[in-house]
Amino acid sequence: MNKKVLVAAIASMLVLGGNVGGKASATESEKSVGRIAWEHAGELEAQKGFDKNIGTAGLLSGSYKDYVIVGGGANFPYESVLNGGAKKHYSDIYVLKKGNNKLTMVEHTNLDHEIGYGSSITTEKGVYYIGGSPEKEYADDITLLTVDQNKKLKVRKIGDLPFTISDGVAAEKDGKLYIGLGKQDGKESNKLYEYDLKTSKTRELAPIPGETVRNQSVAQILNGNLYVFSGGGSVAYTDGYKYNMEKNIWSKVSSVKVGEKEISLLGANSVKLNKDEMMVIGGFNKEIYDHAVKNLGTLQGEELLAFRTKYFNTDPIEFNWNKDILIYNAKKDTWRSVGKVPFDAPCGEGLVLMGNNIYSINGEIKPGVRTNSIYSGTIFKK
After folding, report:
1. CATH code of the domain covering residue 287
2. pLDDT in tens, 229-241
3. What is the pTM assigned to this prediction?
4. Alpha-carbon distances, residue 298 vs 214, 234, 246, 303, 313 (angstroms)
């Protein structure tokens, strides 16, 4: 593949949305998503030392000005999960420039360490990356990534957390990072912290209620509050909570539900659309996930081998991962679907919003298997 250009518009696919309310006088930023037109937007070139990129999950991803910054993550390049393959993390970072709904790669570089399953936050100052490294020395880092006037990636370490973290959540508001859940110092945790970017001080906040184990949730700041949904441990969750920063208290909000169907967002990713709304793509199927975790943890001998063989050889579509493109409205405390993604539902993907374009980058499409595809969605508002 040409290093400079990511192939765009290979196949155009249309996702029709549902009914969208709103007044005719609403500004463009206040309008909500009506439908999304998707197209295949290319692939990432092979990581350093490899002939082929088979896709990664748990990526760093975000945007800075006209650039998408994405990279890191992990996959199984040597042997399948079924055959005991080892997970490999990467240090490769790709800088892609947006133009005319296309992404053109302007730099492929490498960090001095491998990363994966940290939290990414897009801000005006750049993309913050929190924790997320297989190397303990770097798994507590807070890093800021930007792009200079020469289209070169700039990486600056901002500070250290007093603990390592992966599979957690993070968001920014008024110069403070809200970081927590996931695995902290290698142990499951429901704790939340505030990191002050000015003072570099970390303060423990009220822990999220509900389950004490909550990995790979989705979270955004809407209307000045932190919203956290789903995640999982030995089972997948569909619940939701709101954290009030001024009062340091949590309250329950609507579970992830469209119609009568509750949906797990474990492993999904999200972007903030406006002050009221967030969009979520992906999520493991609760029933299949719960059943698999139970069997993989309790079966033994031939029964375990038979289950593993069938499970890891199953086609992606049979895992029934969430394909609905979900919108949560914090003002109304409601969920709705605006259609389905016309590609294999990803988990652990990079998800980046730039203007009226949403990019779904790589991710897992079934347990142990990744995709290297990038999909670009053009958002039409109502």
Report:
1. 2.120.10.80
2. 999 999 999 999 9
3. 0.91
4. 21, 12, 44, 10, 20
